[in-house]
């Protein structure tokens, strides 16, 4: 029969003391870590380090970086942590040039802004100022590259329902037909308040209406394909579709 092992209490005291010391040291390390973390936070928020240090802007072609920041009411004195991404996005999207805005905060102090602008589908002159027509039907002169636009010229147009509908119809056109149009003149008649006259890069004049414009213009490629080479004239797309050479508007083909 084995004898019970007798452990002297004095032998256990150093072990217990060591465990208590380790626990005390561990708690001390936690307290020190918390203290320094809080200290760093206080320093961060009380100095310029907590302000936005850099804005990165992507996707803008019509608006400059400076204009984007101005529209969003942003500057480098903004607090990085209190800045609301949703608020900035709403401010930008309220501007009719911006279709979509996404704002991301990148620690420690960078704000990334990505915008999607409405495409430019036309340009016009109003009081000697050049305006761009956007795909949403909005006219704006707040763009940075208005002299480089490869889009149709709009003549006799004003901001209104007709322009809105015209813009909507233009966005439905395939690129091949869209880029054939050099000028669109608003030319209402007694019979049709939405009558328009188009001039194309192929040298034709097209008479049609804003109503169902995209459907009417879908006939344009097949019509000019059947016109004898070198013959120019007027393509009627109001009722039916036919071609009349210049000087003989009664001739149908």
UniProtKB/TrEMBL annotation:
Q: Name its GO BP terms in alphabetical order.
A: FtsZ-dependent cytokinesis
Alphabetical list of InterPro entries matching this protein: Cell_div_FtsQ/DivIB_C, DivIB, FtsQ_DivIB, POTRA, POTRA_FtsQ_type
Localization recorded for this chain is:
Cell membrane; Membrane
Q: Where is the POTRA domain?
A: 50-118
Q: How does it sit in the membrane?
A: Single-pass type II membrane protein
Q: What is its main location?
A: membrane
Residue intervals passing through the bilayer: 26-45
Question: What domain of life is recorded for the organism?
Answer: Bacteria
What keywords are annotated for this sequence in UniProt?
Cell cycle, Cell division, Cell membrane, Membrane, Transmembrane, Transmembrane helix
One matching Pfam family is POTRA_1
- Indicate yes or no for the key word Transmembrane: yes
Keyword DNA repair on entry? no
Identify the GO cellular component terms for this protein.
cell division site; plasma membrane
The UniProt entry's sequence similarity note says:
Belongs to the FtsQ/DivIB family. DivIB subfamily.
Its biological function? Cell division protein that may be involved in stabilizing or promoting the assembly of the division complex.
Q: What HAMAP family has UniProt attached to this entry?
A: DivIB (MF_00912)
Name assigned to this protein: Cell division protein DivIB
């Amino acid at each position: 029969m084995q004898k019970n092992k007798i452990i002297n209490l004095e032998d256990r005291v150093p072990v217990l003391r060591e465990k208590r010391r380790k626990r005390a040291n561990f708690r001390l390390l936690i307290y020190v870590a918390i203290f320094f973390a809080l200290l760093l936070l206080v320093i961060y928020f009380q100095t310029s380090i907590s302000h936005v240090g850099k804005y990165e802007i992507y996707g803008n072609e019509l608006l400059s970086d400076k204009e984007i920041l101005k529209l969003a009411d942003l500057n480098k004195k903004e607090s990085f942590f209190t800045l609301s991404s949703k608020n900035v996005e709403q401010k930008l999207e309220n501007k009719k040039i911006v279709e979509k805005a996404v704002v991301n905060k990148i620690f420690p102090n960078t704000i990334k802004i990505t915008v999607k602008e409405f495409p430019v589908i036309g340009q016009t002159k109003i009081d000697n100022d050049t305006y761009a027509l956007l795909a949403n039907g909005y006219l704006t002169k707040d763009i940075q590259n208005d002299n480089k636009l490869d889009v149709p010229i709009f003549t006799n147009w004003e901001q209104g329902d007709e322009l809105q509908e015209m813009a909507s119809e233009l966005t439905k056109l395939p690129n091949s037909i869209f880029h054939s149009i050099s000028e669109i003149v608003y030319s209402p008649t007694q019979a049709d308040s939405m009558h328009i006259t188009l001039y194309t890069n192929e040298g034709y004049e097209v008479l049609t209406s804003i109503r169902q414009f995209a459907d009417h213009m879908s006939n344009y490629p097949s019509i000019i394909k059947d016109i004898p080479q070198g013959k120019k004239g007027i393509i009627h797309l109001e009722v039916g579709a036919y071609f009349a050479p210049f000087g003989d508007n009664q001739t149908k083909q």
